[in-house]
Amino acid sequence: MKSFVVASLLAAVATVNASPVPTPPGIPSASAAVTQLASLTVAPYVDDGGYVRSLFPTWITISGTCNTRETVLKRDGTNVVVDSACVSTSGTWFSPYDGATWSAASDVDIDHMVPLKNAWVSGANAWTTAKRQQFANDIVRPQLWAVTDNVNQAKSDQSPDAWKPPLSSFYCTYAKSWVQVKYYWALKVTSAEKSALTSMLNTC
């Protein structure tokens, strides 16, 4: 798994760092997202009470001394400098959720586009811990985003029918990314979630 992830990351970083605006890999076109959304199973969330974050191990080592968080910070930042432990010591990060720019990595969280608990109640409770680890550290699809820390905290584990990014201009990309993650990982959506995603895709 590790060698596959690293190879995919190298290709993604090469293309992403060419742009000043962070664009994690794997974001589908609007039309593809509409098709993917239509194919998802619609069902209520099933919360069995068994969710704990440790069932989705983060952050794993991606390459050398770099874990998933530091890898995403390097991928999505501009002029990022890291020390020997791969900790970001300088750089700037643009948070597409709210349009803020930060110069300290401590002000940036790595958001799971589809939150871990949302994944749990959407089907990941039936996965192995190894699969949940892959999901929680997925740098191949648009699952991990460097964003303003308090915006990430405000989102928490909410789906798009309960929380949307502060910037409405980002609704299209947000919905396309959310749908892609749920589609690839074969997770369910609720009817309210599907309705909200449909409305957001209509802004594309």
Automatic annotation (TrEMBL):
Keyword terms, alphabetized: Signal
Keyword Protein biosynthesis in annotation: no
Q: Give the signal peptide, or none.
A: 1-18
Residue ranges constituting the GmrSD restriction endonucleases C-terminal domain according to the UniProt record: 105-198
Task: Please state what the protein is called.
Answer: GmrSD restriction endonucleases C-terminal domain-containing protein
